[in-house]
Specification:
Nucleotidyltransferase, domain 5; three-stranded parallel beta sheet; mainly alpha; 40% helix; single chain
Length: 115
């Protein structure tokens, strides 16, 4: 089963945040994840950085769990279409219509929205 993850996730701007997201997501799933597909953002891979040969924390954790990491073709967000559509819909239905005073307020409203 593939899980599509995009670098445009609002709260994920670093490899550490991406690794935390991965950890929390895998804990909640009731099935074994075999493959994760991401774009080529530096929070997911060092493929286009000066540290090209050094895996990110995100990649290290996937490898420890025996999960394959697929990277979409660079500069082709349509290859991550499901995730991109999901983010657009999230923005239209939730982020664009809500105002948050603080992080706990955001988390509370998100929990209510996801019921």
């Amino acid at each position: 089963m593939d899980i599509l993850v995009s670098a445009t996730l609002r709260a994920l701007t670093s490899t550490f945040s991406s690794a935390i997201f991965q950890e929390n997501t895998l804990k909640t799933l009731k099935f074994k994840v075999e493959c994760v597909q991401t774009d080529n953002g530096s929070e997911f891979t060092n493929r286009f950085t000066s540290n090209r040969d050094r895996p990110t924390l995100f990649e290290q954790l996937l490898k420890q769990r025996g999960i394959q990491h697929k990277l979409i073709r660079p500069y082709n967000p349509r290859h991550n279409g499901k995730a991109e559509r999901s983010h657009r819909k999230d923005n239209e239905c939730f982020y664009a219509t809500q105002r948050f005073k603080w992080l706990t307020d955001f988390k509370k409203q998100l929990k209510v929205h996801n019921r």
